[in-house]
Amino acid sequence: MVETRLDIKNFALICLALALGTAALYWPITSHPFILFDDEEYVTVNKHVITGLSWENFRWAFTNTEAANWHPLTWLSHQLDCEMFDLNAGAHHFINLLFHVTNTLLVFVFLRGATGAVWRSAFVAAFFAWHPLHVESVAWASERKDTLSTFFFLLTLIAYARYAQERSKGQGVKSQPETPGGNTARCWFYALALLLYVFGLMSKPMVVTLPFVLLLLDFWPLGRMLDSEYRIQNLKILLLEKIPFFALSIGGSVVTYLVQIGGGAEWKTPWFDRLANAGIAYARYVAKTLWPTDLVILYPHPKHWPVALSLGAAVVLVAWTILCVRHWRRQPYLAVGWFWFLGTLVPTIGIVQVGAQSMADRYSYIPSIGFFVTLVWGAAELARLKPERKNLVLILGGGALAGCMLVTTMQISYWRNSISLFLHTIEVTQNNYVAANCLGKAFEKAGDKNKALVLYRDVVRMEPRFSQGHFNYAIILLELGRTTEALGHLQAAAALEPRNPDIQFDLGIYFSQHASWTNAAHCFSNSISLRPGFPLAQHNYGCALANLGQFPAAAVHFREALRLKPDLADAKKQLTHLLAEHPGLK
Q1: What is the DSSP letter of 204?
Q2: How far is CA 89 from the centre of its chain?
Q3: CA distances for 224 relative to 30, 214, 328, 374, 584, angstroms
Q4: Which residues make Cβ contacts (< 8 Å) with residue 113, sequence separation at least 6?
Q5: Distances from the Cα of 512 to the Cαs of 59, 116, 486, 541, 542, in angstroms?
Q6: Best exposed site among 39, 222, 224, 572 by fewest CB in 10 Å?
Q7: Rounded to a whole number, what is the largest CA-CA distance in the chain?
Q8: Which residues contact 526 (CB under 8 A, 6 or more apart)?
Q9: Can you tell me whether residue 228 is helix, strand or coil?
Q10: Nearest residue to 404 via CA among 54, 57, 129
Q11: Within 10 A of 202 (CB to CB), how many other CB atoms are there?
Q12: How far from 68 is each of 250, 300, 422, 533, CA to CA, in Å?
């Protein structure tokens, strides 16, 4: 009884230390604003989010494919934030922090329950909570999908572990799972695991690798795959009980791929370059986990990696993998932790290249748990085998945690506003045209148009195929009166991204200002075909048609603009004037 009380006390104290330490470390983000990268699309200018919870917005969350993803629970989470806090950025960040604290505690609870190792589990949870690679997932409002999906991922693992333990009780032998079926408790835990996994998939599709993780857990620490003589047994049964999980993964993968292809998010790069980037990205994730320096919001993709560097990274990864596999009997945690790390990164490693980044800190949020298990259990085993090194291992572990907290504090400071975030990014990366574009937007919003102009010019120089660079450069050139130069960049942006209604609209505005009504009508028509519910495009199309003498068609579009936005004064004025001059249109 004394031991039980002591265990409960230690458990409570560890949870308290993890929660308070994490909250104190990340508290500065509660005073940070939104940033000018994805936060607009996900929150600040998304009308389905900022208007809060409603039946229309609920339906939109499940049917839209904005941001080239299908994650309805993430959208609902943002809507709930806006319902409660409006656009108070600090409150949105606070909810992210709550999820991160909760996820930290779930990591500890899961590992302690599955392995029985209290202090090793506590160290893994602490590294997860305080490692600077995870700042991006917590300090960025748009990354709610990361913290939310991990919340459901960890709950699924806990439910599955309870299911496996209940089956072991029914069997009486931990290492031998029984055939499908069983008592009510284990059925409930199994069903709960499936339901939680569905929620995870609806938060972020990166969790499609969860069935693979479940098989790893069957090997270690749940011990359901091997008998006492380390022979694989009942693999067929273990695979059969994963079929519903794999079915959900396949469905989630197919939906995600179709949505991303439909949204134009996939980059068409040669297979060799994809494989080269994958190998190097794995090596860089390991390096940044062990020595977290020069962490930025976006690591630009170089398009082509040196062959020698790619082969070197592949050799190192293969060598370490072989080492882990060779020790699977004596140190199973090495293989499980390493394959957890490798496997859960697969959806984001660049085999299917989405976006301009070669890797991203946020992608390490779930994979790092496996890597930390390998490190912590390996260090603890070293201390056990060589007791004289126990104090050294503890000192190094404590020093590593202290170092993580220090670097995390510095990393959080970069997120205090968009200018500091993207200035830091440009300082430690090369040819980062996306970061330069975001920094230009930040300076433009701050009123410094000259700095914005220089940055946009650099963006166009670095990547002539980047439509947003041409578009932003054109808009600021127009504001500075350099209209002829602006037209070329507007047309370049429209050619590079012909399905962007905003670019088509602004090009139409340019032609309207220069009385080129045929061209203006064509652009506004394109904009409306891409976004029918665009009241300003409807109004301006009406104006262009009226100037071309197509009065009945103009009246139709003025009326549609007013239907979409009844308080659109210009449309009401134009329609009134048109009807007064042409009474037959009534």
Answers
A1: -
A2: 18
A3: 44, 11, 15, 20, 82
A4: 158, 161, 162
A5: 37, 71, 14, 10, 11
A6: 572
A7: 99
A8: 498, 501, 504
A9: coil
A10: 129
A11: 23
A12: 18, 19, 23, 20
C-alpha angle 217-219-222 in degrees, rounded to nearest 5: 60
HEC profile for 232-267?
Answer: ECCHHHHHHCCHHHHHHHHHHHHHHHHHHHHCCCEC
CA distance 297 to 357: 9
Q: How far apart are CA 3 and CA 16, in angstroms?
A: 20
The domains located in the chain, with CATH, are: 2-414 (no CATH), 498-586 (1.25.40.10)
In three-state form (DSSP H/G/I as H, E/B as E, the rest C), the secondary structure along 67-117 is HHCCCHHHHHHHHHHHHHHCCCHHHHHHHHHHHHHHHHHHHHHHHHHHHCC
Cα separation, 456 vs 438, whole angstroms: 9
> In the block, which residue shows the tokens 């938060």?
203
Tokens at 127, concatenated: 């590294």
The percent helix, strand, coil of the chain (3-state, each to 5) is: 75, 0, 20
| Interatomic CA distance for residues 505 and 543, integer angstroms | 13
Which token pair is 429? Answer: 């990366």
C-alpha R_g of the chain: 28
**Which two three-digit tokens encode residue 151?**
């919340």
Angle, alpha carbons 214-145-66 (nearest 5°): 120
DSSP string across 486-551: HHHHHHHHHHH-TT-HHHHHHHHHHHHHTT-HHHHHHHHHHHHHH-TT-HHHHHHHHHHHHHTT-H
pLDDT in 10s for each residue of the chain, 586 residues: 444 665 788 899 999 999 999 999 999 999 999 999 999 999 999 999 999 999 999 999 999 888 778 999 999 999 999 999 999 999 999 999 999 999 999 999 999 999 999 999 999 999 999 999 999 999 999 999 999 999 999 999 999 999 998 887 756 544 445 544 457 888 999 999 999 999 999 999 999 999 999 999 999 999 888 766 667 778 888 999 999 999 999 999 898 888 877 665 555 677 677 888 889 999 999 999 999 999 999 999 887 888 888 999 999 999 999 999 998 888 999 999 999 999 999 998 877 666 677 899 999 999 999 999 999 999 998 888 777 778 888 899 999 999 999 999 999 999 999 999 999 999 999 999 999 999 999 999 999 999 999 999 999 999 999 999 999 999 999 888 888 899 999 999 999 988 889 899 999 999 998 899 999 999 999 999 988 889 999 999 999 999 999 988 999 999 999 999 999 888 888 888 888 887 776 6
**116: β partners:** none
Alpha carbons 461 and 469: distance in angstroms, whole number: 9
Q: Considering only CA atoms, which of 128, 140, 141 is closest in space to residue 101? A: 128
